[in-house]
Design goal:
This protein is of the alpha/beta class. The protein contains six helices and 15 strands. The strands form five sheets. Strands 2-1-15 form a three-stranded mixed beta sheet, covered by helices on one side. A three-stranded mixed beta sheet has the order 3-4-5, with helices on one face. The longest helix has 17 residues. Bound molecules: citrulline. Citrulline (CIR) binds next to loops.
């Protein structure tokens, strides 16, 4: 990562797009073995998530559920948005591929759009921005062609990119997230990765891997409940930490970053 001014590393968002979970959410993809999500609890947790984004100062556009897409509320996977453009992704899972098409018109109200084209596949959950630099995970969902297309779009806009193999967790951001000032919160598996060598890192305690999916929104950190070790690590850095229960989304391999697109 080229050197950057610390302040410019911290994103300022004014908008978010979310989609209410469908009652079919339990039919989505999952590897979690945590049982079926309860739709009522999921709706309640989602409402508190939207409220937290609003408390961070964001105007939140709430889209209607799509019953035919049980993973459709994980909107992050369907696009990557920068000030210049919205990149509409081509999700790696076949059952999710059409979700991006339903999101594109909304994003088109805010940005020109460009599309990841076949044979490329890309999930937004594999894309982490830190200032002018993007880490792009190469995972079971994001293939080489998809990662290369995104890198080419971003480099034309003068962003820098690094492609990082993801051999643990569903997406890159299941294991690595930016918690401010260029610091990455990550699992032990990613701690010694050469592609991340330029970053300061905070490694979550054993058994708290899910807490890596913490979301920096303006000056606050939204983090999942139930991870006291990670919470005290983050509180040391002085940013307010807002705890949210994500139990029903976790059952479907989802978390705080996947539930919105921020820009
Ligand atoms: C899936 O497997 O695609 C969904 N059940 C979960 C997606 C979570 N998205 C994310 O981490 N960005």
């Amino acid at each position: 990562m080229p050197p950057q001014d610390r302040n410019s590393l911290n994103p300022r968002f004014s908008q978010a797009i979310v989609r209410r979970p469908a009652n079919s959410l339990g039919d989505g993809l999952t590897t979690a073995h945590l049982g079926a999500p309860d739709p009522d609890q999921a709706h309640w947790q989602f409402a508190l998530y939207v409220q937290a984004l609003q408390q961070c100062g964001l105007v939140v556009t709430v889209l209607d559920p799509l019953e035919q897409f049980p993973d459709g509320h994980f909107v992050e996977d369907a696009a990557v948005v920068v000030p210049e453009v919205a990149v509409i992704s081509r999700p790696g899972a076949l059952s999710r591929r059409e979700e991006a098409r339903y999101l594109a018109p909304t994003l088109g109200q805010y940005r020109p759009t460009v599309q990841i084209e076949p044979p490329g596949t890309l999930d937004g959950g594999d894309v982490l921005q830190v200032g002018r630099h993007f880490l792009i995970g190469r995972s079971d969902r994001t293939n080489d062609a998809g990662a290369a297309q995104l890198a080419a779009i971003l480099s034309r806009l003068e962003y820098t990119t690094t492609i990082v193999p993801v051999d643990a967790g569903l997406h890159f951001k299941s294991s690595v997230n930016h918690v401010g000032d260029g610091r990455l919160l990550l699992t032990a598996e990613f701690a010694d990765r050469i592609e991340l060598a330029d970053f300061e890192t905070l490694v979550v305690p054993d058994g708290e891997q899910y807490a890596c999916n913490t979301l920096l929104v303006n000056d606050r950190l939204l983090m999942p409940s139930g991870y006291p070790g990670t919470r005290s690590l983050l509180e040391k850095w002085g940013r307010p930490v807002h705890i949210l229960n994500t139990s029903e989304f976790r059952k479907m391999d989802g978390g705080l970053t996947c539930l919105s697109i921020r820009f």
